[in-house]
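Q: Predict the bound structure with zinc ion.
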Amino acid sequence: MSTVAAYAAPAAKAPLERTTIERRPVGEFDVLIDIKYAGICHSDIHQVREGWGEAIFPMVPGHEIAGVVAEVGSGVTRHAVGDRVGVGCFVDSCRECGPCRAGTEQFCERGMTPTYNGLDRSGRPTYGGYSTAVVVDENYTLRIPDALPLDTAAPLLCAGITSYSPLRRWKAGPGTRVAVLGMGGLGHMGVKLAHAMGAEVTVLSQSLRKREDGLRLGADHYYATNDPATFEELAGRFDVILSTVSAPLDFGAYLGLLRPEGVLANVGAPEEPVSINLFSLIGGNKAIVGSMIGGIAETQEMLDFCAEHGIGSEIEVIGAEEIGTAYERVVASDVRYRFVIDTATI
Ligand code: NAP
Ligand code: ZN
Ligand code: ZN
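A: Predicted complex:
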């Protein structure tokens, strides 16, 4: 065991404070990672506030981890001391079930081990990236290509893969029209990635406040959803809508923006249910589908794609003592476009 510094919420809705946690000894197939940066995902806030249900406390959030390998176990072959690596939303799975073998470890039939707010395979609570070091199995540790700076790469481990996976599955590319709903952490990555894939990209944001940024990041068009004219002008326009909105939404209105056979791929995880009138799906053979992060192999593919296209997250680097303020700004849709904690301040 080693004792490392961390920021933790002692109880639901409590402010995060500096503390120490124990990390397990480095096992045969483990790597010890010196964490350099940890992104703040809206999912951290949902969980710290128990918005998704009962959670495990104390909680050290953080599943957008970028760092450098400091030590490896005797059996490790995939990573070496000094390598630049990342860790995303899960740190283990059974490795034997259908989904694990298919590379969708996030759907492990025996349950994947979340990076935090979960129990590991031996029943100990997991603690996330708002800390200075973590021990992770080599198979759940990603390689961060040299072309990607560690600070702007950290958010790729969740925001990046969560946007990339559905864009790939629903074939964003030349000749397709993709709308990205919500321009926050996931949404701004959706804009960059869909643009790099060759799609025509439209941002649907609550207002035009972030329009210039959206166009700079690769959007071709930018519309405000607080303007009813948007829904008339864009009716039937899109092949794919990627919804990244963290709050309950009137999906029916957005289904009207899809062409027949179009797909609304939802990654937002609001705390309350939404209701839709099924006629808005039937009229036009439309689909609402979900998408949850991505498997290890696809996450590596996404990191390599980002390196090839020079894509990182737009970030504000903060000290750990600013986490509370950052949470408030995320909840107020005032994030530009991901807060990243410099773990040297922990
Ligand atoms: P974020 O940075 O807060 O971005 C969410 C964006 O949604 C905001 O910037 C805002 O965009 C829009 N929005 C917020 N409240 C809204 C409202 N009441 N009405 C309309 N639009 C609203 O959050 P994030 O980190 O990108 O995460 C987004 C959601 O995805 C969260 O619920 C998170 O838990 C979830 N998530 C899911 C997965 C997955 O695997 N499926 C992975 C990571 C995160 P505008 O200002 O442009 O309107
Ligand atoms: Zn996340
Ligand atoms: Zn499994």
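A: The chain has two domains: 2-158+312-345, 162-290.
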